[in-house]
Amino acid sequence: MDSITQAVLGAALQGSVLGRIQGRRSLLYGAALGTLPDLDVIIRYADPVSQMTYHRGFSHSVFVLTGLALLLAWLVSWLGQRYWPQKGYRWPRLFLAFWLVLITHPVLDAFTVYGTQLFWPLPFTPESWAAVFIIDPVYTLPLLAAVLIAGFKGLQ
Asked: Per-residue pLDDT for 52 more than 80?
């Protein structure tokens, strides 16, 4: 999927789970975290075929992203208890939010024709369900509208 769709989905999920704690900032944090798996594009491979093959590899693995969600939840929980104890940052809720934002990224990519290596490093064929176009305004625009309304109206 395109980066805008991934950011909007991340914003919607983190806003849903952490909106009462983080307020409107949860939308920004979720948008940033939702695009994180695509940062593997900065890695240069030998040729365009390798670039296409290895993009959506380790950075889109449910195993790697679950570990990253655990690490982020622990770190934010520790920082939250130390610096913002009144906010109510608790490990289970943080893990749920971060895990949902991170895991839905490769799952959404798996719905495209290009697919993704959900179970890297296991030698499975990349998952590709070919149900959604790479840029799909029918999916993105209503979700974007909801996120914008939440951003302007505020999260309660």
From this structure: no
